[in-house]
Known about the structure:
The chain is an alpha/beta fold. The chain has helices spanning 2-18, 22-37, 49-64, 82-91, 97-105, 122-134, 149-152, 164-189, and strands spanning 41-45, 74-77, 111-116, 137-142, 155-158.
Amino acid sequence: xxxxFFQNYSRQxxxxxASAPWEEISKxxxxxxxxxxxGRQFFLCGNxxxxxxxxxxxxxYLYGIAGVLRQGMRVHALPANSAILTCLANDINYEQVxxxxxxxxxxxxxxxxxxxxxxxxxxIIEVLKMAKKMSIKSYAILGFSGGRxxxxxxxxxxxxIQDMQIAEDIQLIVGHMIMQFLSYETISYR
Length: 190
């Protein structure tokens, strides 16, 4: 019985990947590469498991892509600093914890990637609005219906899966694809 459960999970993940929006993923890879090459900043954020994924991927892009050149990306995981998060949540409100950081740290032409299962978290909506206001291009890796984020992100990468764990798995898989793409590009022509 348990073997069947694990096989079903695997099949569901494979099905979602088989119908991935490859054009949008490729655009993300190209924009992240350009951001890196031009020394611009890359911001990531999410809540809960998506916050952990944002922190994980920031590590990969800061250090993991550096390779022999020792040149990582200028990357910020907005959920990483608990002092900043609790200060902003307490002094302003939780809906603004990412948008306020982006307003202070970001500049036009930087890049934002939000990670969200539902796409409806108020703090994700607010950071996407702030990105638009600041001329920061935004991407969103989304599950379920894509929520409001699907409409607000410049480039939504939507996986219509009704399963939070698979939605979070996909965030890391896409993030790791981009990491390997950047590492490959570094070896190829840098």
